[in-house]
Input
Amino acid sequence: MNESTKTARVLQVLVGLFLLLAVAFLLNLWGRSAPRPQIPLVDPKFIDPATVRQSYADITAAKGDLSDFDCYGCHDKKKPPTLRFDGNQTLIIPQEHSDIVMAHGSHNRNNNCFNCHDENNLEQLQTRDGHQVSFADSPQLCGSCHGPTYRDWMAGAHGRVSGYWNHNVGEKTRKACVSCHNPHSPKFPGRQPAPPPHPLHPLAKPSGSTEGKD
Amino acid sequence: MSDKLPNSEPIPALDQVGMSRRSFLRTSAVVASGFAALAAGLEPLRNLNDFPTLERFMQKYYKEMTPEDMARVLKRIESEVEQQYGVRPHVRDYKPMDGVEFVYCLNLSRCIGCRKCVHACVAENNQSRNPEIQYIRVLQMPNGSFDMEKAVHDYNPEQVPEKGHFYMPVQCQQCKNPPCVKVCPVHATWQETDGITVIDYDWCIGCRYCEAACPYWARRFNFTKPSIPKEKINPNMSYLGNRPRRQGVMEKCHFCIQRTRAGRYPACVEVCPAGTRKFGNILDPESEVSYILKTKRVFTQLKEELGTSPRFFYYFDV
Amino acid sequence: MKTAARNYLIFLWRCARIAFVGDWRYYAWMGVLTLFCMLGLNAYAKQFAQGLVVTGMSDQVSWGVYIANFTFLVGVAAAAVMMVIPVYIYDNEELHDLVIFGELLAVAAIIMCLSFVTVDLGRPDRFWHLIPGLGQLNFPASMLSWDVIVLNGYLLLNVHICGYLLYCRYQNKKPARWFYIPFVFTAIFWAISIHTVTAFLYVGLGGRPFWNTAIVGPRFLASAFTAGPALIILALQVIRRVTHYTITDKALLTLRSIVQVSMLINVFLLACEVFTEFYSGGLHIASSRYLFLGLHGYHALVPWIWTAITFNLTAMVLLVLPLSRSLKWLNLTCVLCITGIWIEKGMGLVIPGFIPTPLGEMAEYTPSLNETLVCFGIWAFGLLCYTIFLRMSVPILQGGISKANEKEALVNTIFAVTEAPK
Output
């Protein structure tokens, strides 16, 4: 084959290849990205700022049902309730209050309802030194033992603060202790976490790995 | 004038080309088929996600815009968002206030790792749901160590907190000496007087140098067009904050600038069930962040040794 | 003035025309390169339309093969000008004409660098934000702004030097020293600066301890001056074979000694890095552990880096032995150098800096098909440019295209018809 025939042949092949390439491009034969895996929208409970409980003040403000606080609906004003303990000195919760779990302090340290409730006036709370505290002011009672936490709470360093940081524009609001802590078992409850992050491309897990690291 | 070189006898021209009709046809065939392949190759451009209008192409840098320019741009953004999502937003350009410097305190004794802050942020700031962009990353750390190599990012147990671990959420630390601001080649990111490091989304060229520079992995890139469900759009927007971003630009936590410059707390602070997050003006002696930094003994900044001087203080009280 | 302009236009016209003329091997080579360019262009069109999600990059590993190739090619561009030093400082006449081939390689390499950076941008339509005066170039704080200035400046420098020298040769005139010698010496310093600035892109990031070391800059230069001249050695032999241009073996051996010294320094610097990281240890060597040994079960780069080190050590040994004076062994050595350094500088530098992330997350990176096609396309485009440059310059240097034979070349063209009287 002489030079000019070789050139002709090469050019013909190139024409064929270019046309083939054009067809391949139009048919989008490669590089098609797989459709992205669906990421379910997050459950709205994970962006709900509502606290787990509602304090007396919260319920009053929301004009909700205050029947839980109507102690003398069942109790007799003249007869302070008595407590019963079992053989192990553990408080026996009366069946009318069976939803209460006493766990305020370990080793049964705080095993007496009337450490906080006033047996002579069930619609009030009492501190250890005899001061009466209303349900709406319950943080005063908590703070009478939990001083450092109370001080932090007053300054806004404990518990959630919401609203306006700029007092010239609006109010800063604090939540009462009982909005987050159940006064009978105050330890902060565990909860289900929101789903973990979804990576842009699937992250290959190394072979034989567990979730943690070495 | 310069000399002639020796040996300047003319050599026959190499490029004297005669064109026979056949070779002309051959050459045309190659050229034509080449152009066909080229045109076919450019076909994907028909499905452009986002080609700028002339107005957007020529849009000025944020700091060079006059109030009239900004008013026009805000109106344009409002109508673009309405067109795309069916919601007419209110887009404002909030300016920093005098006498305000934001600081964030995070109580590591309290964080339970529930990730509500992550999702409250996503909802407030119109972040893409797919691909997923989240400004906050919560690390599950084993007790007793700050070594991030031991951190687990994808923990998902039945209940948090898990025994033996503590949880450390990380987001943009709004450093006083930000490496991202230093490296941006076009000044698309800068720190404002109230301490927030902001991004002009319409100026960013998407080189991702800032993402490489950030020691806290705080910056996110829009690898494709962000997708936000229409019903989830937060219409209270700001230019430097939570207006929907475009493909190819960076974004990051901006302390919910549309809330904080209006005097409110960021979304992450508002949603935290454990009261872990504290935000405020450090120049105000009555703020809770001032109280914390005055009274707590143990607090730290992440990677303090790098000299970034973050505005984020992680503290402990039990 | 009008005649000068006309003459220059004719020169450009003849250069452009010769690029389309050649034998069947030329058409085959250019055809294949064009095919790859089109593949790359199509892949880039997909990326432009859909965004960088079509690559393998993510928030965890946010720079990939584009920037890896860019880093390697800046080194090649810098090193191409290293041939200039023997000629102009040491008066080595053997390499005199070959300087042009080196500088043309630098031009092609810079074009590739600029292309790689452009395809990596999320918003390339906003490139004008980088233009000082029009946009907001963050000079001098941002090292990327320095890179923009020095790369474009280097391109202009080399285009001027080559263009001027070739045009003088075309006109059979001796080039005026003041019009190119100062630029040549500027180019020598500028070459070192482009690669140092590129190194400083990485070095300046305090949050990435893998990069934040003083040795990255010298390592960049040492590896550039190994891979660059190695590429030129190979390119010159191709030129010699295809165009029968006179290139002595002595010229190739001079380049070999540059590669030899640079590779020795490069391996020494590698040893320094490895010792510093692994002897003292600590948490900040996580990226080095990932690269050389694997970390937490992730070890994708380990075979690559050890292959690169093997190549580099083998090449070093061969370069030291007189065996590599024979062209067959020299060519093998050059291929080992180029491949080893491409792996080391590209994947072995850019990727491990991101793994683990600053928050300790392990996320590996694999380039996607689209990304790879874009890379092939840009490499093909660079080779296309270089081939065209050579196709234009070799005949000029050999005299096949010169002012003297202009008249016969312009027969039956518009220039002939409108030729001005002498």
